[in-house]
C-alpha cells in the first residue's frame, strides 16, 4: 500500500500544474462547504438564542387588561383586570408550554409628578421563574431580589434614571407610602423593560391588597409548537386575551428553514462541481497515461492494482484539497461573518459562522467520499486498459 | 408584484424582529431633563411668552472633562453615580415674546431620598430666578416642598447667592442668599438639600452654556477660599 501511495504521489508530481489546480479547485469547494455548514450552524444557534431572548413569546391577560405599563399609563392607570393565580398552573400543564411566569401590574397616582400629577406603574414578577425566562437581562448594578417576599425593587435603566436610583437607595411607592430597597439596575435592552419597576410578585400582591391575583401570565412556548394553534387554545380559557409574538417566532423559524435549504443547495452545487472537476482531471490523466498503464499491465500489474493506483491518486488530490479548504475556512471565518452580516437584512446577535472540529471532520469525510466516488470511473477505465491496445496506440 | 409584496412583508417583519432582538445599547445615551409638555409648561411658567426655542447641550460636547472639572469646582462637589455624568444632554428652553428673547427655562435631575427630583428654574436674561418648579418630586413630603411658598423663596436669587452654599454640608460658608430659604419640613432635609444642590447645579450650567460665565468672577474655588 505504501508503494502504491508513493507511486501515486510521484505520478501527481509529474503534472504539477494540473494537480495543483485540481487541489485548488477541491480546496475552494471544501472552503465553501465548511463556510456554508459553519454559517448554517451559527445562524441557527444564533436565531435559537434570539428566540430564547424573547423571553416569553405570549402573554395571557384578563380580557381588557393592559399588558404593558405604557398602555396602563395611556389609560390613566385604570382598566386593570385580574385573573386568579391558579391560571398559571392551568397554562403550565399544556404540552406546548416550556415555561410560564406570573405577573401582577399595578399603578398608583403620584400627585408630585408633573403639574397635575401622573401615574407610576409597578410590575410584580415571580422571582423563581421570571429571571430564568428573561435570562438575557443583564445588570448594570446589583442582582434580582433576595427573597420572594422582600420589599425590594429592580429597575429598568430608564426607570432608574428617571428616579435617579442606584443599588442600596430607597424608592417610594407614592400613594401607598411604602419604601422599597433598590437591589438591581438593569442594563438597557431597548424594550419596555427599560422603563419598568420590578418587584417580587408576592410583595406587590401584599402592598396593593391583591392576594392571589394576577394581571398577566408570560408563556414561553416550545420551539416546535404550533403557535397559532396554541394561541387558539389559550383563547378558550374564560375571559382572557392573548398577546402573542407568533409572527416574529414564525418568521425566525422560516428564516432557519430557508437558510438550511439555501445552504444545502449551494453546498450540493459546490460538491457537484468538484466531483466533475475531479473526474475530469483523473480521466485526462488516465488518457494521457494510456501507454504507461498498458506497460504496467504487461509487466504484471493486475486490473485491481491499476484501479487502486488511480483511486489513491484521486484520494490524495481530494484529501489535500479538503485540508487546504478547511484551513482556509478556519482562517477566513471572521471575514465571512463580516460579509454575511453586511449582506443579511437581519442578522441575529452572536457568532454567525461557527466552525468546529466536528464540522471540519464532516467536511473531510464528505471530500473523501467525493474522492472515492469520483475516482471510481477513471480507475475502472484505467483498470480495463489492455496492454495490446496500449502498445498498438503507441505504434499508431 | 407578488415578490414586491413578499419583500415588503419581510422588511416589516425584520423591523419588528429587530425591535425585539437587536441589542440597542449603543443607540441610547444618557437622558436629560425635559419639560413634560413644553408648549403648555413654557406658557404657564413664563406668562407673556409667545414662543420658545429648544437647545440641547452636553458637557462632553461643550468642553469635555475640563469643563466638567470647572463645573464641579464651582458646584463644590463632584458629579456622582450612574446618572450624573458628563454626557447628560441638558435641554435649554430660550423663551421669546414675539422676536425678543425674554428668558430661559432649564431643568436638572437630582437624586432625592426616595426617588428622582427634577428642578426647573425660570430665569431672566441676567440669570435671576423668576420662578422655581419641581416638575417631579418623589418624596414623602412632596406636598410641602411643592407648595408655592417654598418655591417663592428662590425668586430673585442668582448664582452669586449660591456660591457660599456648601452642597456637601448643606450649610452656608459665608454671606449667602440661600440662608433665607427655609425647609418647610425638618424630616425632608435630604430632599431639601437635594433641591438646593439641584438649583446650584442648574444655575452653574446655565451660566456655562448660555450666560458666558457671567457669574464666574464671583466664584472662589476651594483652594482660593482655604489657601
Structural class category of chain B: alpha+beta
Q: Based on DSSP secondary structure assignment, what is the total number of beta strands of chain B? A: 7
Radius of gyration of chain B: 21 Å
Principal-axes shape call of chain B: globular
Assign the structural class of chain A, choosing from mainly alpha, mainly beta, alpha/beta, alpha+beta, or little secondary structure.
alpha+beta
As residue ranges, the low-confidence spans of chain B are 1-28
- Strand arrangement, major sheet of chain B: 1-2-3-4-5
Distance between the termini of chain B: 80 Å
Computed over alpha carbons, the radius of gyration of chain A is: 33 Å
What is the tally of beta strands of chain A? 12
Q: Describe the main β-sheet of chain B briefly.
A: 5 strands, antiparallel
List the domain count of chain B as a whole number. 1
Count helical runs of chain A.
Answer: 14
Tell me the domain tally of chain A.
2
Helix share of residues of chain A? 55-70%
Key descriptive features of the protein:
heterodimer; A: alpha+beta; 2 domains; two-stranded antiparallel sheet; 55% helix; elongated; B: alpha+beta; 5-stranded antiparallel beta sheet; 22% strand; disordered N terminus
Write the topology of this structure.
The complex is a heterodimer of chains A (396) and B (227).
Chain A: H1 2-14, H2 16-53, E1 58-62, H3 69-74, E2 83-84, H4 87-92, E3 97-110, E4 118-125, H5 130-133, E5 139-142, E6 152-155, H6 157-163, E7 170-173, E8 178-186, E9 197-200, H7 201-207, E10 213-214, E11 216-221, H8 227-235, E12 240-244, H9 246-288, H10 290-298, H11 303-331, H12 333-343, H13 357-383, H14 387-395
Parallel strand pairs in A: 4-9, 6-8
Antiparallel strand pairs in A: 1-11, 1-12, 2-10, 3-4, 3-11, 5-8, 6-9, 7-8
Helix pairs in contact in A: 1-11, 2-9, 2-11, 2-13, 9-13, 10-14, 11-13
Chain B: H1 2-21, H2 38-45, E1 51-58, H3 59-62, H4 64-75, E2 89-97, E3 100-111, E4 116-123, E5 129-137, H5 142-145, H6 148-152, H7 159-162, E6 165-166, E7 171-172, H8 189-209, H9 222-225
Antiparallel strand pairs in B: 1-2, 2-3, 3-4, 4-5, 6-7
Amino acid at each position: 500500500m505504501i508503494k502504491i501511495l508513493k507511486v501515486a504521489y510521484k505520478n501527481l508530481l509529474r503534472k504539477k500544474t494540473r494537480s495543483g489546480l485540481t487541489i485548488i479547485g477541491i480546496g475552494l469547494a471544501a472552503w465553501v462547504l465548511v463556510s456554508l455548514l459553519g454559517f448554517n450552524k451559527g445562524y441557527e444557534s444564533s436565531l435559537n438564542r434570539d428566540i430564547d431572548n424573547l423571553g416569553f413569546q405570549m402573554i395571557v391577560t384578563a380580557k381588557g387588561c393592559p399588558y404593558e405599563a405604557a398602555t396602563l399609563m395611556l389609560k390613566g392607570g385604570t382598566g386593570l383586570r385580574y385573573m386568579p393565580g391558579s391560571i398559571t398552573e392551568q397554562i403550565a400543564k399544556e404540552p406546548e408550554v416550556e415555561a410560564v411566569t406570573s405577573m401582577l401590574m399595578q399603578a398608583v397616582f403620584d400627585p408630585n409628578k408633573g403639574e397635575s400629577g401622573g401615574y407610576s406603574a409597578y410590575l410584580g414578577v415571580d422571582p423563581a421563574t421570571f429571571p430564568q425566562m428573561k435570562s438575557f437581562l443583564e445588570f448594570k448594578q446589583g442582582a434580582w431580589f433576595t427573597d420572594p417576599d422582600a420589599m425590594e425593587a429592580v429597575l429598568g435603566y430608564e426607570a432608574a434614571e428617571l428616579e435617579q436610583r442606584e443599588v442600596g437607595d430607597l424608592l417610594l411607592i407614592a400613594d401607598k407610602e411604602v419604601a422599597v430597597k433598590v437591589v438591581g439596575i438593569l442594563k438597557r435592552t431597548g424594550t419596555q423593560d427599560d422603563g419598568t419597576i420590578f418587584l417580587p410578585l408576592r410583595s406587590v400582591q401584599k402592598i396593593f391588597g391583591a392576594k392571589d391575583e394576577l394581571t398577566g401570565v408570560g408563556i414561553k412556548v416550545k420551539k416546535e409548537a404550533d403557535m397559532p394553534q396554541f394561541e387558539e387554545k389559550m383563547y378558550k380559557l374564560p375571559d382572557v386575551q392573548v398577546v402573542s409574538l407568533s409572527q416574529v417566532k414564525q418568521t425566525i423559524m422560516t428564516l432557519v428553514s430557508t437558510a438550511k435549504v439555501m445552504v444545502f443547495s449551494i453546498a450540493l452545487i459546490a460538491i457537484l462541481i468538484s466531483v466533475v472537476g475531479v473526474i475530469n482531471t483523473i480521466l485526462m490523466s488516465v488518457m494521457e497515461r494510456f501507454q504507461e498503464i498498458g506497460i504496467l499491465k504487461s509487466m504484471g500489474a493486475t486490473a485491481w492494482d491499476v484501479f487502486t493506483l488511480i483511486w489513491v491518486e484521486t484520494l490524495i488530490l481530494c484529501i489535500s484539497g479538503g485540508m487546504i479548504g478547511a484551513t482556509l475556512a478556519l482562517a477566513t471565518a471572521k471575514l465571512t461573518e463580516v460579509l454575511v452580516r453586511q449582506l443579511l437584512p437581519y442578522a441575529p446577535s452572536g457568532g454567525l459562522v461557527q466552525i468546529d472540529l466536528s464540522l471540519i471532520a464532516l467536511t473531510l469525510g464528505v471530500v473523501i467520499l467525493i474522492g472515492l466516488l469520483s475516482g471510481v470511473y477513471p480507475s475502472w477505465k484505467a483498470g480495463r486498459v489492455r496492454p495490446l491496445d496500449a502498445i498498438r496506440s503507441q505504434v499508431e | 408584484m407578488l415578490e414586491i409584496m413578499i419583500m415588503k412583508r419581510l422588511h416589516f417583519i425584520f423591523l419588528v424582529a429587530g425591535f425585539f432582538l437587536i441589542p440597542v445599547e449603543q443607540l441610547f445615551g444618557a437622558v436629560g431633563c425635559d419639560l413634560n409638555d413644553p408648549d403648555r409648561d413654557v406658557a404657564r411658567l413664563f406668562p407673556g411668552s409667545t414662543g420658545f426655542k429648544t437647545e440641547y447641550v452636553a458637557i462632553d460636547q461643550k468642553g469635555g472633562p475640563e469643563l466638567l472639572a470647572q463645573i464641579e469646582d464651582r458646584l463644590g462637589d463632584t458629579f456622582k453615580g450612574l446618572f450624573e455624568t458628563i454626557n447628560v444632554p441638558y435641554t435649554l428652553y430660550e423663551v421669546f415674546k414675539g422676536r425678543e428673547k425674554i428668558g430661559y427655562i432649564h431643568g436638572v435631575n437630582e437624586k432625592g431620598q426616595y426617588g428622582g427630583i427634577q428642578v426647573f428654574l425660570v430665569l431672566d436674561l441676567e440669570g435671576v430666578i423668576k420662578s422655581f418648579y419641581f416638575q417631579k418630586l418623589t418624596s414623602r413630603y412632596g406636598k410641602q416642598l411643592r407648595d408655592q411658598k417654598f418655591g417663592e423663596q428662590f425668586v430673585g436669587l442668582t448664582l452669586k447667592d449660591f456660591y457660599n452654599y456648601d452642597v456637601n454640608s448643606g450649610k452656608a460658608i459665608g454671606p449667602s442668599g440661600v440662608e433665607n430659604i427655609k425647609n418647610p419640613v425638618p424630616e425632608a432635609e435630604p430632599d431639601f438639600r437635594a433641591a438646593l444642590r439641584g438649583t446650584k447645579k442648574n444655575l452653574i450650567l446655565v451660566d456655562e452654556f448660555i450666560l458666558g460665565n457671567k457669574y464666574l468672577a464671583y466664584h472662589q474655588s476651594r483652594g482660593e477660599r482655604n489657601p
